[in-house]
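User: Hello! My lab partner asked me to get a predicted holo structure for this protein. The small molecule is fe (ii) ion, SMILES included with the sequence. Please write out the structure tokens.
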Amino acid sequence: MTTFKWSKSYSVDIPEIDEQHKQIIDFLNQLDRAKKDRTEKETIENIANSLIEYARNHLECEERYMKEYAYPDSEEHLKEHKEFRRKIKAINREVQSNGHNPGGILKASIMLQQWLMWHIQETDRPLGEYLKQQGV
Ligand SMILES: [Fe+2]
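Assistant: Hello! Below are the structure tokens for the protein in complex with fe (ii) ion.
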């Protein structure tokens, strides 16, 4: 996994959502570092658990905004969040089931990372623009 560097191109222009994305990216980068440093399994599991909980709350936050401001493209966005949740579940499964090797957690988190870079730019940015227009 390569380090996921935050740049302006990931900004959705809503500070609250940007902060949440940055935190998720930070957890993913922590996992990446943990792999390189051969960090112990328990620490990797702890980071993964924090990522899972935080990401779930983040999705709920975006979904609250979509509902509150009657976002016209929410159906598509919610479909993508379904995919997001599947990827979080995949990480969770690895945390629950992986015997002695944290490789599965790291593999599942790479899948999330790649997908997230795309989702933020393609799907969250238009949402941010819309919210901005609504005066958020
Ligand atoms: Fe989203």
